[in-house]
Amino acid sequence: MATIITMPRLSDTMTEGTVATWLKKVGDKINEGEILAEIETDKATMEFESFNEGTLLHIGIPAGETAPVDSLLAIIGKEGEDISALLSGKPADDAPVKEETKVTEETVATPEATKVAASATTSLPKGVVVITMPRLSDTMTEGTVATWLKKVGDAVTEGDILAEIETDKATMEFESFNEGTLLYVGIEEGNTAPVDSLLAIIGPAGTDISGIAENYKTGGAPLAAPTVAEEKEVASTEKASEPIVQEPSTDGQRILASPLAKKIASDKGIQLTQVKGSGENGRIVKSDVENFTPKTAAAPAPTTETASAKTETVAAAKPFVPAGEVFTEEIKNSQMRKIIAKRLAESLFTAPHYNLVIEVTMDEAMKSRAIINSVPDTKVSFNDMVIKACAMALKKHPKINSQWREDSILINHHVNIGVAVAVEDGLVVPVLRFTDAMSLSQIGGNVRDLAGRAKNKKLLPTEMEESTFTVSNLGMFGITEFNSIINQPNSAILSVGAIVEKPVVKNGQIVVGNTMMLSLACDHRTIDGATGAQFLQTLKQFIENPVTMLA
User: Fold this and answer.
1) β-sheet with 171-175: strand ranges across
2) Any domain includes 314
């Protein structure tokens, strides 16, 4: 059954894309995960992979040509399958439909297909624009609406932020490229839907869009459009200043709370019924939850009757059974957590991992860092020094900087180091491009900038792509040694432990020294043990003698 593929939105500001190169041609077999084409966005040229298997039956945008987001890019299906109905937008009624060539609604639930379906029954009124769930990263297949910043009935201008959308890599602001009134919301807050599902409809105020909403599908099921009365009710009860989450209280009343306040309360185990809101109409906001101190109820004095009962219990010498309450909590997996689970499982079970560990003396590095940081406006961390040393060692041992392919090994002679950063929902890996060309201070500045924006969910998808090697550091948590899972398609990842002061032997004498453990996880398909060991020896020399990194 054929599947329509549309021009993806590969960045949050992309409105059109240019096919730089087709890596497949009509008639080629396509496997899931294979790169179909290189697409030039408003920010970078990115590889676009297939999420389907089959034969490439049609190319809708030739190499070198530009088309808007959601334009027909390609069709994938069974070899020899008749796709004329998809190209024309209507089925061939006079021709029998074979079972193997039947196209279902589920496989063609894309803007191109649904717009064709919609146009067959309803033409878009003047000024009405349909907005679909964007593909905000090259690996995104579905998105979750974290927060709507506009509600039905609100005026929208070009550049306004409509919603915050959680992808497989980050939560990103999604801005409007159109002006008008928000007439319809297709995906409610907290709900997840595939890329290209109906997200919203914008147009002139008062426009009847019920026919449009009914013809656009989400996962093959029709979406019901809100009535005018419902829109008015929503507009009158919701506040535009901040999204409001209503929580039921014990007395049947509704409690108003912002999504962030609700999340913090859930994390801290605080009942919102106990919190007094300081926001508009008593709405509970972030500061109310953070400043909340639960009141401890005074224990009632035991009565004569209860005291007597306790005496009898002791006299009976019955075993003590503590009173308690079984308490569990179920947390919905975020898109980031789902992708982390998928990617790491794929890496661990497809790449044969092995680990090499080496101990590095840090005395000279500590002295050098103190001297460097004595220069005004200069701040370099030990992690920055490790990254710089890795970049230089990778130039000397390029096999470590490689990628496994089924028919070849790709050796990268450029060095793009990914730096693992822990964020609230999991882990992201922003990338320092051409790290070997950076000075220590440049590495430090870039790492601080990327890590800061990662924790504030402001990283762009393009800033987390094309790494050739990864560094993960848990030393700041006191972890002395650990092993990481390779961040594919990299062939290796370095795990950095804490600096430990301990007795060491120098020149035959036991003295106090400072050491650090490094663990290199390698993909045995691309890196042999001796190759990994030689890389670690070079890395050790650079770190133990920082002056050599300045040569």
Assistant:
1) 171-175, 161-166, 142-148, 192-194
2) no
Token pair in block for residue 511: 């003295």
Judge whether 50 and 8 are in contact, CB under 8 Å: no
Tens digits of residue pLDDT in 298-353:
445 555 455 454 545 444 556 777 878 888 988 888 777 888 888 899 999 999 99
* Shared-domain flag, residues 413 and 491: yes
**Do 231 and 249 lie in a common domain?**
no
Distance (Å) of CA 540 to CA 242, 345, 535: 52, 30, 9
Please tell me the distance from the alpha carbon of residue 113 to that of residue 124, in angstroms, as a whole number: 15
Task: Report the C-alpha gap between 499 and 517 in whole angstroms.
Answer: 8
- Asked if 12 and 19 touch (Cβ cutoff 8 Å), the reply is no
Domain carrying residue 395: 350-550
Task: Give the C-alpha distances (Å, rounded to integers) separating 151 from 239, 242, 318, 363.
Answer: 9, 10, 62, 59
pTM: 0.52
Peptide bond into 111 cis (omega under 30): no
For residues 162 and 103, membership in a common domain is answered with no
Positions marked catalytic: 524, 528
**What's the total number of domains in the chain?**
4
The one-letter amino acid code at 97 reads V
Quick check: 519 and 483 in contact, CB under 8 A? yes
Cβ(132)–Cβ(70) under 8 Å?
A: yes
